[in-house]
Amino acid sequence: MKSLFFSALLCIGISGQTDAQASFSISPAISYAQVSPNSDTVARGVITNLTNQPLALTWIREVLAIQPPTAMTAVLDPYLSHLPSRNTFNFSLMPGDSGEMSIVYFNYSEDPGCALVRISVINQNNPADSTSALYEINNCTSTAIHPMPQSNIRLYPNPFSSTFRLEGADGVAHLRFIQADGREALRLAAAPGQVYMPASLPPGMYTVMLEDNTGKAVQSILVQKIP
To answer: Residue 10: which H helix or E strand, with range?
Structure first.
């Protein structure tokens, strides 16, 4: 499943020594689930307030791909199980609290099903403080999956060892390095012309999710950091 997902993602400046400070996190950054026969399927995530202050947050759901057309998804947040018709909601998260940030997939037909959904969460008092997570339920066909709009952003060199740059990324606000298991390894703030130096990032393969200042992903790039 994961190889198809990352293949789909591929289709579709500081000195970067300091991570962007986020007040909350969603884990994992990419959640996978297999359709459960004769029951609703849940791709689970957890949102956590990383501060000692209450947060006023907004989640936004985007259905990027779904099959069959009669299937539906709905959001489970820390307090409510929402109807499939709801695409956004305001909620609060108390200091240090964690709770559900999950997607439920409903398919009552006999046809095979799948879904790819993105949830973006925004701090109402600081819109630049935002993050997003992807939820993949089974595999949609490669022609149905369009998780990221086409873009001409280039990360170079790739592979890189200590530093890299982005070309054509004026609208990018954050970079998120996602491991193969879906966990976020590193989050960096972006600026035009920036040279990034992610010294704390271990060598390995990552999917870099490039996000604008609303937390919406504009492109994903598969990269390798070498020793």
So the answer is: helix 2-11
